[in-house]
Amino acid sequence: MKRRELIKLGAAATAGVAGSQLLTGCDHNPSMKKGMASTGKSAKARVVVVGGGVGGVSTAQAIKKADPNIEVTIIEKNKLYSTCYASNWVLSDIFKMNDITSNYNKMADKYKINMVYDQVVGYDPVKKTVSTAHGKTFAYDRLVVSPGISFRWDTIEGHDESTTHLVPHAYKAGYQTMQLKEQMDDMPADGTMVMVTPPNPFRCPPGPYERASMVAEFLKREKPKAKLIILDAKDKFSKFGLFTGGWKMHYGYESDNSIIDWVSKSNGGTVKAVDPKNMTVTTADGEKIKADVINYIPAQKANNTAAMMGLVNDKGWCPVDQTTFESTMVPGVHVLGDSSVASPMPKSAFSANSQAAVVGKAVAALVNGQEASKDGNFGNQCYSLITTDHGISVAAGYKLKEGKIAKTSGGLFPKQLTKKAFEMEAGSARGWYAGMAGTIFG
Ligand SMILES: Cc1cc2nc3c(=O)[nH]c(=O)nc-3n(C[C@H](O)[C@H](O)[C@H](O)COP(=O)(O)OP(=O)(O)OC[C@H]3O[C@@H](n4cnc5c(N)ncnc54)[C@H](O)[C@@H]3O)c2cc1C
Fold first, then answer.
1. CATH 3.50.50.60 in the chain, residue ranges
2. What pLDDT shows up at residue 442?
3. In angstroms, rounded to a whole number, what is the distance separating the alpha carbons of residues 116 and 430?
């Protein structure tokens, strides 16, 4: 990882709001005259999508597939999107940041979707408009919201957003991923890295444990005397047996020479404070651990944009009618992806993409005055790499039953715990990544 690459990508990624060539609302709305805000009536049905991540882009595409005449505008903060999925692979040098970073140009051209690079900061449910940091207003007939997550800094002492340059979370891919990678590259050969995992629910349940695996692969190769301590506020995690089995095979897990030390909740893994200046982590039991690198992944909630729009419940997430993902708090607004309560589906890119197919069809029907289907099918498969060539996954199928998402099938893979099967699963993980990123960004 070259420092130059880091600076270049970081600058580009943050150029979204500050440097965007912002178009006026009428530039996105052929029925408006130049200079007018896009709040007037339009001949075409208009859908505005807040957030150009997996859920937002996939829904915009699904709406266009259902009815190309609907005018779809995505409002996204940044001009570049780095996929969180596969961002752990950057830590073990399988991918560079460039490999997981795309712009929206090809996708927008292909689907004839209007892209606006700006931040949504205001919302009027009565007038049916959203407004942006650059003072633009966009009218909609239906609104789709997929802004991802925000962090709950109130659950930790000593550390918050202002110190993430010292203690990166790297749980929103981009500059944070590069900072964590740079700190790992710079850590002493016999150093200690501490990772603190979040409490449930959080985006990508296997994500922290795949990250631990990728960190361990990097340490084994580059700094074999270094250690990774995982402090966990839980006693079990997704794909537990497959992860710990893989760690035993590759990283000496539970032996005296283990690269990974996982400290569960019952063994004192809950963390109450992080001191970024002195690089220490203090557990709920009062134990102080000194580290060279700390990766603190905070507790999570629906994105603050959803909260600003009045879409969240008292638990901090967005309840929806699972048939159409229309908010149960604000009519006419559909929330999907990580912000939504789509349980039993996990918060994952695969889930968001699968929900988008249902939401896109429903929104297209509803803006055309038709009824939305009540027969949605959903799926999820979360792949994780334990080494570059050792893959595992958890998969599930879901169906709507009486208006609620119900799990109909599921399992862990591979079924045969052989080297060949793990290699094939790793190949499937890479294939899934290429397919998903290709589908979304064109
Ligand atoms: C380390 C890691 C590994 C992962 N691995 C996998 C995996 O292997 N498989 C898998 O399926 N999932 C994985 N995930 C989860 C996956 O990335 C998320 O579930 C998915 O991105 C959720 O999509 P979303 O649309 O809800 O949010 P996002 O993809 O985060 O998109 C939200 C978008 O909204 C934009 N936004 C937010 N607020 C505003 C605003 N006010 N105005 C304008 N724009 C705004 C943001 O800039 C962002 O682009 C992983 C996640 C992490 C962190």
1. 3-150+301-374, 153-298
2. 82
3. 31
Which CATH fold topology does 3-150+301-374 show? FAD/NAD(P)-binding domain (3.50.50)
Distances (CA, A) of 230 to 29, 182, 209, 267: 51, 19, 9, 12
Residues with Cβ within 8 Å of 103's Cβ and at least 6 positions away in sequence, in order, are 79, 80, 81, 441
The list of the chain residues with pLDDT below 50 reads: 1-41
Ligand 1 pocket by Cβ (under 6 Å): 50-56, 75-78, 81, 84-85, 87-88, 119-120, 146-148, 171, 203-204, 207, 211, 303, 305, 337-338, 347-350, 352, 382-383
Question: What global pTM score does this model have?
Answer: 0.92
Say what the pLDDT of residue 42 is: 54
Residue 194 Cα to ligand 1 midpoint, Å, equals 24
Task: Give the pLDDT of residue 13.
Answer: 33
Instruction: Identify the CA nearest to 204 among candidates 171, 233, 228.
Output: 171
Of all atoms in ligand 1, which is nearest to the CA of residue 337?
26
Closest ligand 1 atom to 56 CA = 25
What separation in Å is there between the alpha carbon of 30 and the centre of ligand 1? 31
Q: How far apart are CA 328 and CA 320, in angstroms?
A: 5
Chain mean position to CA 22: 25
DSSP-derived letter for residue 337 is: G
Please report the pLDDT score of residue 29 as a whole number. Answer: 33
For the domain covering 153-298, report its CATH number: 3.50.50.60
In terms of Cβ atoms closer than 10 Å to its own Cβ (0-12, 13-18, 19+), residue 1 is middle
Distance 84 CA to ligand 1 centre (A): 6
